[in-house]
Amino acid sequence: MEMEKELKKSSEDVFAEEELDEDGLPPSITLDKALENLPPLAPVLIEGILRQGHKMLISGSSKAGKSFLLMQLAIALAKGREWLGFKCKKSRVLYVNLEIDSASCINRFVEIYKRLGIEPEDDESLYVWNLRGKSMPLDKLMPTLIRRVNGRGFDVVIIDPIYKVITGDENKATDMAKFTNLFDKLCLKTGVAVIYSHHHSKGEQGFKRAMDRASGSGVFARDPDSLLDIIDLILEDEFKQAYLDDQNMTAWRLESSLREFRNITPVNFWFDYPIHIVDKEGLLTKNYASGDPRYNLTKSGKRKQTPESRKLEFDNAFDINLEEDGTCRVSTLAEYLGVTDKTIKNRISEFSDEYVNNRGVVSRKSEDGI
Questions:
Q1: pLDDT confidence band for 368 (50 / 70 / 90)
Q2: Are 121 and 237 in a shared domain?
Q3: Which of 13, 23, 176, 364 is least buried, going by the fewest C-beta atoms within 10 A?
Q4: What Å distances lie between residue 86 and 208, 275, 277, CA to CA?
Q5: Domain containing residue 66
Q6: Domain count, the chain
């Protein structure tokens, strides 16, 4: 009880109202003044991924099971359990369902609870707001959402999916900047973390970086504090027959682009209806994502690539294996891509306008070339 009071006090300190200047905006401050009274960081809700008051996007292909994944996350947060191997802080959660009819939504939750071996009856930390057929553009819905959340102790709001409430043209950066600013408003007014889902653009995505797969404007990649992307993995018939009891199971990889934390090591997992299960045995480690050009190269036995495909492959490998200091080791890239250190060094020379190798440590050049 004492710990809960401390966590609540810490949260209140973090989200206390800022004093505004004559322009109605927070005043600018000198760093030395800030250091005299160092502001506390917001509590971590998902270990190494998300803080309270921040925004998180989960992107994936249509019909990829994103809603099942978000429901499993909602339960993990409400119960203080792990989600795909990441510890979650026990939280009060509002799940805003915009896509599935009410009965189906509730029954999905019940099925997930059962498969996880959890009793839902005593769960007072998870609320579901079913709005299928009653949703409206987010700018119209937001005042009502803020009223329903404010002062009720919620830590997290999950909105699934956003295409149901999107305003403007998703391909226009100005429209999407206005749209995503509404999530900022919800965070600032209520102190909750906002988690929302969005679909991939059309076509295969394995040759793209995780942050570039979501449909529409690049704002979707840049705006959230945490971007998690799920992509399906290729399962050949021989592999399925050797390892799967249920041939309908699918395999997925979770990748990230994080602002507050270092990027996660990609997580491979199974979708065994209706839950997602981490591949703890490492069976999926060498499976390629759908659309990854390396898969076709392995099938042909050759590494015929264009300069463009080599660049995309290298960019993706660098981003996935990025260290906290913004660098990546040559040996790490070589292991990830299944090539020699010499090949990686050749790639760095080829892309020398963007990358530099300093004694085996690879870094990106800044925009001014330094």
A1: low
A2: yes
A3: 23
A4: 25, 15, 12
A5: 40-278
A6: 2
Q: Is residue 11 part of a domain?
A: no
Using CB atoms within 10 Å of the CB of residue 279, give its burial: 0 to 12 exposed, 13 to 18 middle, 19+ buried.
Answer: middle
- The pLDDT tens digits for 247-278 are 999 999 999 999 999 999 999 999 999 999 99
CATH number for the domain that contains residue 225: 3.40.50.300
**Same domain (yes/no): 332, 250:** no
Burial 69-78 (b: 16+ CB within 10 A, else e): bbbbbbbbbb
241 is written with which tokens? 């027959």
- Going 129 to 132 to 134 to 139, the CA torsion angle's sign is positive
Asked whether residue 293 is domain-assigned, the answer is no
Residue 329 shares a structural domain with residue 245: no
Whether 250 and 316 share a structural domain: no
Whether pTM > 0.90 for this model: the answer is: no
Would you say 11 and 43 are in contact if contact means Cβ atoms under 8 Å apart? yes
Dist CA 296 CA 293 (whole Å): 5
Could you give the angle at the alpha carbon of 91 between the alpha carbons of 5 and 44, nearest 5°? 80
